[in-house]
Amino acid sequence: EVQVLESGGALVQPGGSLRLSCAASGFTFKSHGMNWVRQAPGKGLEWVSTINDNGKNTHYADSVKGRFTISRDNSKNTLYLQMNSLRAEDTAIYYCATWIQVHFDDWGQGTLVTVSS
Amino acid sequence: DIVMTQTPLSSPVTVGQPASISCRSSQSLVHSDGNTYLSWLHQRPGQPPRLLIYKISNRFSGVPDRFSGSGAGTDFTLKISRVEAEDAGTYYCIQVTHFPWTFGQGTRVEIE
User: Fold this and answer.
1) Nearest-CA residue of chain A relative to B62?
2) In chain B, helix, strand, coil percent, each to 5?
3) For an interface test with A, which of B1, B35, B96, B105 has the most A Cβ atoms less than 10 Å from its Cβ?
4) pLDDT in tens for each of the 117 residues of chain A?
C-alpha cells in the first residue's frame, strides 16, 4: 500500500525558513516523480513544485520560484521542500503527492505551515 | 500561464440525480506527445484530494463508473451519472501539460 507522510509544518515568522519532509513507502520511490501541492485556509489547491525520479529535473510555481527548493533523498525514500523568505501568503496545508502511474495518484494528509509574527 | 476556469462554482444536487462540471483552459492542453493531460480530483472537507480522472477520460483505480470525463482541446467536462451522498465536496480540474501546472478554482457540490 502506498503511503506518504508529511512532516515539518510549524508556525514561523515572516522572512523565516522551514524544511518540509515527505516519507514515502509502498512503492519504488527512486523510480517515480513527486510533487508538492498547497492549500491556503478556505481556498483552492495550488501546485507548488515537481521533481523527477533522479532529482535532476525540477519545476516551480511562479509564486515560490527562487524561494523554495524541492529535493529528494532516494536512499531515505524522502522528499523535501526547503522554504526560505516565507511570507504570510505561504500559509497553507502542504501536501505531498506521488506520480507513480499518473500525476497525483496518491496524497498524504498534509502538514500545516503558518507564517505569522 | 494557463488559466483553468471551472463552472459552476457551486452546484446543489439531489441524490440520484446527475451532475456536470465544466473546465475550460485558456490554451490548448494537447501535449507535444499527443496526449492531453487534464485530470479531475475530488476533495471532501478535512481530507486530502484524491484522483478521479486522468488524461481527460480515464478513471483512476477504484473510482466508481458513475464518474466520467470527456472533452478535448480547451473544453472538458466531469459528469456524475447518479450522485451519491459521498460525492459531496469540491472538485478540481488540473492541467499538467504545460508548466506551471494549474488548477481550476474548484466546484463545490452540495447534496440537497
Assistant:
1) A105
2) 5, 50, 45
3) B96
4) 999 999 999 999 999 999 999 999 999 999 999 999 999 999 999 999 999 999 999 999 999 999 999 999 999 999 999 999 999 999 999 999 999 988 899 999 999 999 999
